[in-house]
Amino acid sequence: MNMKEIIINTEFIKLGALLKLAGIADSGVHAKIMILNKEVKYNGEVELQRGKKVRDGDKIEVSGFDLIVVKYEAN
């Protein structure tokens, strides 16, 4: 499995927004459906909250996509 690093410049990003930013979800509705269908893992565990706060170092897994690692970089 390949790894894709997503850079954020805020303390956290909500899971649904991260899925859109990473190009995994086409829209917020698409992200919500993926999460409700238990297709998204947050740090190895299935996550059901679209508003889950994802922070520096967190890992997001979606089957068929690269592993997403969040990296915080201040401006």
Record the SSE blueprint.
Blueprint: E1 3-8, E2 12-14, H1 15-21, H2 28-36, E3 40-42, E4 45-46, E5 53-55, E6 59-62, E7 67-72
Parallel strand pairs: 1-7
Antiparallel strand pairs: 2-5, 3-4, 3-6, 6-7
Q: What distance separates the N and C termini?
A: 30 Å
* Count of individual beta strands: 7
Oligomer: single chain
Roughly what percent helix?
Answer: 10-25%
Question: Number of helix segments?
Answer: 2
Radius of gyration over all CA atoms, rounded: 11 Å
Fraction in beta strands = 35-45%
What about the largest sheet? 5 strands, mixed
Give the CATH H-level superfamily: RNA-binding S4 domain
CATH top level assignment: Alpha Beta
Q: Would you identify the CATH architecture?
A: Roll
How many domain modules? 1
CATH topology, which one?
Answer: Structural Genomics Hypothetical 15.5 Kd Protein In mrcA-pckA Intergenic Region, Chain A
Q: What is the average of the pLDDT values?
A: 96
| SSE series | EEHHEEEEE
If strands are numbered along the chain, what order do they take across the biggest sheet?
1-7-6-3-4
Please mark out the parts with pLDDT under 50 across 5 or more consecutive residues, or reply none: none
Q: What shape does the CA trace take? A: globular
- Alpha-beta classification: alpha+beta
